Structure formats: structure tokens, C-alpha cells
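User: My collaborator sent over this chain with a note saying "see what the structure looks like." That's all I know about it. Can you take a look?
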Amino acid sequence: MSKLIQGIAASNGIAIAKAFILEAPDLTFESKTVDNPAKEIERLVQALEVAKSELEVVREHTKNTLGNEEAEIFSAHLLVLSDPEFIEPIQEKIKAEKTNAEQALDQIATQFVSMFETMDNAYMKERAADIKDVTKRVMAHLLGVTIVDPSTISEEVVVISDDLTPSDTAQLNKQFVQGFVTNVGGRTSHSSIMARSLEIPAVVGTSSVTEQVAEGTLVIVDGINGELLVSPDEATIKEYQKKRARYEEKKAAWATLKDEPTQTADGVHVELAANIGTPADLEGVLANGAEGVGLFRTEFLYMGRHELPTEDEQFTSYRKVLEGLDGKPVVIRTLDIGGDKELPYLELPDELNPFLGYRAIRLCLDRPDIFRTQLRALLRASVYGNLKIMFPMIATLEEFREAKALLEEEKEALLAEGIEVSNTIEVGIMVEIPSTAVLADQFAKEVDFFSIGTNDLIQYTLAADRMNEQVSYLYQPYHPAVLRLIANVIDAAHQEGKWAGMCGEMAGDEIAIPILLGLGLDEFSMSATSILPARSQLLETNKQDAVKAKADMLSFSTTHQVEAFVRKTFPMQ
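Assistant: Without extra context I'll predict from the sequence alone. Here is the result:
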């Protein structure tokens, strides 16, 4: 009888193959006092240079096989290896404590990893993974240890590992690696993102798969449900072979929808847009047939550097995205930094409750020097496409009015300088605070659009930190209170002739899509890889049926009731 191991579904698909155990190299070392610190620093520098050379090769390989977006991960790794804020403390420790390079590297890397892992933000937690990956590579060179190269795998296997670094994942040959399963990780980890790009089924976060699966054991990876079956019998194998064939048929059908408009079964058009973080993400947006960008998270332009980006640097990025979308709408969110997303060079104060603190629009209004630079860059770029500007974390009408006044001032200043600015820029807000959702009828009189940020709206409504595993059960997208707030926002927008979108993860959720359709959502913005499955689902969903079900969906008292009703009433993918 097969054993079932539960994990997190990281990349869709079914894989059936023998297990290949990818063991981490032994990087244990002795802590030593050295007589010649200069020699240790020289060893460190040599190891750093070799690691950089290797990563240049990996980056180029990734660019050729997966594309620019995935290759940018290794650009970030190369930045770490050249970052004086990371390298200099290691060298200083070697000098001051006369310790060997291995010990200094390990201690400083551990400090950085701990700092990033304690941040309540998935993106920043991934910076910890970057530090771990590059530290492992440098440490291996200091110790003279060879790191196993996954690209040498030459038979069909499922890779089983404690974790897969971005370097490991980028070197997987999808001709042979049918899938992978790890002890650690989540859907937003680099390895998960790259697995989706490679279209390799993956399950992560199983806790103990390496202890439960032996080399050569036949396994089935169910990347759709987040499960691994160990030593399946013949009947189970045949069942999953059929499931795999059905999934491949679905994928082929989705691919045909790339250039099709998004409409429901009864012919009603809705807009499917993509969420992006950098101009490098454009490739995925276009490849998946997005009808626009519903969220450009501009904070990534400010991260991984030692000073604020200049007006011209920002202008270049915004222009590239606007031109790349060729007239399709692009919603650019102004800087959403602070609290959980730190910029070391800003020296922001430590806060006991960063999610409710000095961040986003609050920081921007307090630091107009930073805000005005971004607004000027956005306004200058506006003539190159269909720009919509969105302010995040708006809690009061006064905040919106103040932010819009600054925008108007910068527009007038640019026009006075003879610089052209578009006259058709829509200015909206992100609805992520319950007070704003409740007062949506008043906001709707002044904004041009709403975009609902459900990631924060849900945690604020239910007072549950979405990064805290002990209360994660309270992070409920279909909770009736959340649905009523969303409905209030959409209704308020429509009463004033405005449109309402959603840019939180909920917009691409299979259960949420018919709910949001029934509530009247105009624009669904999601990760690029979710667009074609969502388009397919909408094609099979009748909007009139969803609208008729609205009253029922808003009448329930629990999340479970809502989900059961939706599964029973609407077609699922």
C-alpha cells in the first residue's frame, strides 16, 4: 500500500518516476584562530571570485533556457557577492578576531539570514534564501568541497531534497527531472517560481520527505493537490497516468486561449491582468496573454541597492513597461515600503507592529522628497502608454487628497518645464484597510478606480497575521465578512460609474473567481501563470448565474459554507 506525504502544491502537474535523493554537501568546518588574517581575506576573495564566475555561467544558462525573469534571481545573487554591507563585515571579523574565513563567513551570513527570516514579508524572507545559496557556494570553495550538479542527472527521476536552491533548480534538465519534492519552502520561494517556469510538478514544505523516501523508490508527485505517493501499486499508477493525461490536455487547451479575449460563458467580458515586480516580468505577462498589468509593485526598484533610485532610473523602468504593454492598461502602485519591507539606507525606525505602522503612503507623505521623485518619473513616463497610478495603504480621504495634490503639483511643474504629460491618467487607491472598504461610497466620489488588495484586507479584517503559522487558519479569503467588504467596494465604485479591480492572490483563486464575478468585479489581476487557467474557468462560468448567486454567497456565516456552495454551484478547473 502506498504512503501519502502531504506538502504544499508549488507547481501543477503529475510526475511518476523513481526518487533521486539530492543530498546537501558536507560543509562542516573547524573554527580556527589564524596568525595571518590577510591570507584568510585573500582566501575569501578568491572563493568569492570563483563563485561569481560560476554564477555568471548559471545566469546565462538560465537566461537561455528559462528567460530573463528567472535569470534575474542570479543577478541578485551576484549583487550579494559584491555587496560591501555583506562582504566587509566578514573581512572585519577576520581582522578583528583573527578567525578563519569559514567561521567569519558563517557568522555574518547567519546574522543576515536571521534578519531576513524574521521579517513578515514573503519577498524579504526569500532574501534569506539568496544569502543561504551564495554562502553555500562560497563555503564549498573555501573547503574544497564539490557541490553536486543537478544538471548531470541523465535518467527520468523525481528529485527529493531538503531544499532546492535557485541554482539547483535552474540546472534541472526537464527532459529527465520529472518533478521535485522538498522538506522546506512555500509557493513564493524561488525554487517554486522556477518550477512553474520549467513546468515541472513540485511539492514543497513536506517537513520530512528526505527521511521517508529511499533512493530509487517509485513515487508519484501530485503538484495539483500538494501530495507525494510513495511506492504506489499498479492501480494507483494507472489512475495517476490518466490524471496526468487529463492535465496535459487541459494545458494544451489553455495554451490556445493566449490571444483570446476573456469572456464568460454568456459572453460578458472581464479583464485579466498580471501582477509584476520589475520590467523583467514583462516576458511572462505577454507569454500568458494578459490584457494589462493590474499591479506593478515599484518597491522592488528600491530594493537590493544602497541608495534611492533616481528619477531617471525610475522613468526608464516605467517607460519600458508602458511601451511593452503597447497601449494596454498598466496600474503602477507608488512606493509601498516600510515596516515589513525594509530599506537599510533609509534607516527606518524599528516597530513593534510594522504591518500597522510607518509604511506605504504614510511614509511617502512624510517624506515628500522621495514621493515627488517617483511622481515626476511616473508623469514623465505617462506619454508612453496607458498609465494608471495607484496609492497604497490609504486609510482616510485626507491621505488620498494630499497624495493627489502632490501629484497635481508635480504635473504642473513638469508642464511649466515644457515636459509633456498625459491628460488621461487615472488615479486610484488600493483598498486593503477595512475603514476604506466601509467608507468606499465616499472614496468613490473622488477616486478614478479601486484595486482591492486582499492579502492585507483579509489579515486586517480577521486580525490574523498571514505569516504567523499559529493563526494561519484565520487567513480566510472566503470569510463572509471579507466578501461583504469586497461587495461594498465594488457596489460603491459602480454607483459612481467607476471600475473596481483586485490585485491580491484571491483574484486568481479557483473558488474565488465565480464569487468575484457574481459580486461584479471588473478586473482580475494575478500572477502571470494563473491567467490562462482563469480565462478557461471564466469561459465555462455563466455571469448571470454568478450574479443570481450573489445574495446566497453573502448570506452565509462561515467560510466552509461559502466554499461548499461555490463548489456545488460552479464548474471548477
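A starting point for your reply to your collaborator: The first strand starts at residue 3 and ends at 6.
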